[in-house]
Amino acid sequence: MFLVQYTGLNQLPFDPANNNEPLQFGSASGPLVTEGLIENGGESSKKRKRTNAPSDFDPALGMMTGIPPITPMMPGLGIVPPPIPPDMPVVKEIIHCKSCTLFPPNPNLPPPATRERPPGCKTVFVGGLPENGTEQIIVEVFEQCGEIIAIRKSKKNFCHIRFAEEYMVDKALYLSGYRIRLGSSTDKKDTGRLHVDFAQARDDLYEWECKQRMLAREERHRRRMEEERLRPPSPPPVVHYSDHECSIVAEKLKDDSKFSEAVQTLLTWIERGEVNRRSANNFYSMIQSANSHVRRLVNEKAAHEKDMEEAKEKFKQALSGILIQFEQIVAVYHSASKQKAWDHFTKAQRKNISVWCKQAEEIRNIHNDELMGIRREEEMEMSDDEIEETTETKETEESALVSQTEALKEENDSLRWQLDAYRNEVELLKQEQGKAHREDDPNKEQQLKLLQQALQGMQQHLLKVQEEYKRKEAELEKIKDDKLQVEKMLENLKEKESCASRLCASSQDSDYPLEKTLNSSPIKSEREALLVGIISTFLHVHPFGASIEYICSYLHRLDNKICTSDVECLMSRLQHTFKQEMTGVGASLEKRWKFCGFEGLKLT
């Protein structure tokens, strides 16, 4: 018998199996045990005396005074305790009811087995009931789990209980394994061990299926509403053709704002087959009205293209302005890096200035490359289409020849590999023949002959391929020579044209005096001509100009003997090729030379 309450708190002051007194626990509403049970154990309770009880113990309550009794029926407490970790054993308590008492099972025993839970289960099977147990006692025990809808009791000590909700079944399963005793009787007919399990009922299954069908209907309705929300709106219906509608559509076709709607209506009418001999003139007038919008659309496209070109020009101007400002910032950094100002800065300040200078130069170079790319695209758009066609044809011919030579090379390599493979097979056959020492073996001789014949054929084919490869190489070299000759001829023609233009210019200037002709040739030597070409190339790369010190620093890399004053004098003499401008503001005012050969060529 269980002498210890499974709460781990106090030892029971009596043996519940042998005690004949009623188990009374007081509460705010009075005792939970009926008065009829007190009469059964009245005499035995008078004979039993409790000794060693504390002075403040109240025998009427069965616990210490000042402490309210803890019962499963108190607010906040129920039969089902809070969730317990799975690794901890479940400790169950004694449950006292009005007509019976429930004793928990041995915690060391395994939990009672249950069947698989049916879907939507609200009904439980309760077995092991006492023979004297009534429906009222069953209701008293299991109504604490939840609202009971129906009880079907059998004469064989079991019953079926149907609850209102599914979670109540879990509470009822908690009572499985409890020993039940009616009152304080120890009679076998008043005791039993409860076995609670899931029961399969048609009502539960029907309700569960109805609920599932309702959920499915709700899900379908929700999906349908979502699809309808995401579905694009259907186009408005097109009216049927009539004279009145035709006049309305004809008026709409003349209006720019309603043109698209009217054109859609006209297209639908034509596709429906509304055009006949009577309505052909009306449809022709509407088609003519639609055609009148072509010019408007072309003008709109031209206006948009003009806006795009203006935006490109604005972007190019803004980019050039940004580059000018970057050049000024870089000039500030370079002037700060000179020794006059550099010595007065601290080490950290020098480091920051050098880092800023590098970053500004990188950004400036990126923007400069972008601007040069825009200019290159414009130049390429204005290039001659005929030159491109000729170069493309030459490139296609050369690529065809190169591809043929590569194919021949691959074929030659494959034939060589096959030849090596045949030779290895012949050698292997010869070794096998020497090891076997078989004199009369006609099959091997035939194989050797066949292999030799195949080898000879492969060698002949290889020779033919090599001859063809040499012939193709000779053709390719001949074509390359022809290409070089054509290029030389083009250069000669260009030189002749330039000479002819010079002779024409000299013949035109022959009327002027000799002094003017001497003064009109500012380049006096070939060295100066080379310097002019190098400076022109350098300034062409720097479209925003460069100072004379920057130009001379670049020329000193090529020749240390170049003098700054000579370079400046030479550039000042060529006014149509180089021009000097002032850039900057205030202290950063600087003279810069720019290349203006393209504009000077038009002027001269």
TrEMBL record:
Listed GO MF terms: oxidoreductase activity; RNA binding
Keywords: Biological rhythms, Cell membrane, Coiled coil, Copper, Electron transport, Membrane, NAD, Oxidoreductase, RNA-binding, Secreted, Transport
Primary location group: membrane
One GO cellular component, as annotated: external side of plasma membrane
Listed PROSITE patterns: RRM
One Gene Ontology term from the biological process aspect of the record: ultradian rhythm
InterPro entries in UniProt: ENOX (IPR038876), ENOX1/2_dom (IPR056611), ENOX_RRM (IPR034140), Nucleotide-bd_a/b_plait_sf (IPR012677), RBD_domain_sf (IPR035979), RRM_dom (IPR000504)
SUPFAM superfamilies, A to Z: RNA-binding domain, RBD
Metal-binding keyword on record: no
RRM domain: residues covered: 122-201
Cofactor: Cu cation
Region of interest (Disordered), ranges: 25-61, 388-408
CDD domains in UniProt: RRM_ENOX
Matching Pfam families: ENOX1, RRM_1
Location in or out of the cell: Cell membrane; Secreted, Extracellular space
Residue stretches in coiled coil: 287-321
Family: Belongs to the ENOX family.
Record-given protein name: Ecto-NOX disulfide-thiol exchanger 2
Species of provenance: Equus caballus (Horse)
Gene: ENOX2
